[in-house]
Amino acid sequence: MFNQSILSEATTGVDTPDPDLSGFKVCGWQVVLRPLHIDSKTKGGIILTDSLKDDANCLMNVCKVLKLGSLCYTQEGFQGEKWCKEGDYVLIPKLTGQKISYKGYPITIVNCDRIIAVLEDPQDIDPNFNLTGLVSKTPIKAESVAAAAVGKQ
């Protein structure tokens, strides 16, 4: 279970160095991304457990663009507009892309059309959101849903 107050003090790995991709050729419409991660220590110096970091990292879908394939954003639907460029921080759907380890770095490779948004500051994304923002305080009762469905007919 998450300790939300401790996790809110955690920082993302924005300052983590990027891997050397000089020998890595990106094909076609693929975008090579480095997912951000939760650092081992909070701003206040509390060391996070591996379990807490792993759980929080699963919620992160913010990545840094490392490389773009030569065909990225050349399709007719993009009308010459590139959604992102190398060095941008982007938001991608959860559970998307091919995840690999390259020279010890986690890398995610996605099609260029899987980019949802470009972020000015990736640290504005709150890793707690999925834990607190989407949890309903009052459970929805089956009877309420059934009554609403009957009332609409």
Shape verdict: globular
Rg estimate, integer Å: 19 Å
Mean pLDDT: 75
Could you list the spans in which at least 5 consecutive residues all have pLDDT below 50? 1-9, 130-149
Q: Percent range for helical residues?
A: 10-25%
Strand order of the largest sheet: 6-7-2-4-5-8
Features:
153 residues, alpha+beta, two-stranded antiparallel ribbon, 8 strands
Structure description:
This protein has 153 residues and is α+β, with helices and mostly antiparallel strands. Helices cover 19% and strands 25% of the residues. The chain has a 6-stranded antiparallel beta sheet with strand order 6-7-2-4-5-8, with no helix packed on it. A two-stranded antiparallel ribbon has the order 1-3. The longest helix has 11 residues, at 142-152. It is globular. Mean pLDDT is 75; it is low at 1-9 and 130-149.
Question: SSE layout and pairings?
Answer:
Layout lengths: L3 H4 L2 E3 L17 E6 L2 E5 L7 H10 L2 E7 L20 E3 L6 E5 L2 E7 L5 E3 L9 H4 L9 H11 L1
Antiparallel strand pairs: 1-3, 2-4, 2-7, 4-5, 5-8, 6-7
Task: Give a brief description.
With 153 residues, this protein is an alpha+beta fold. 19% of the residues lie in helices and 25% in strands.
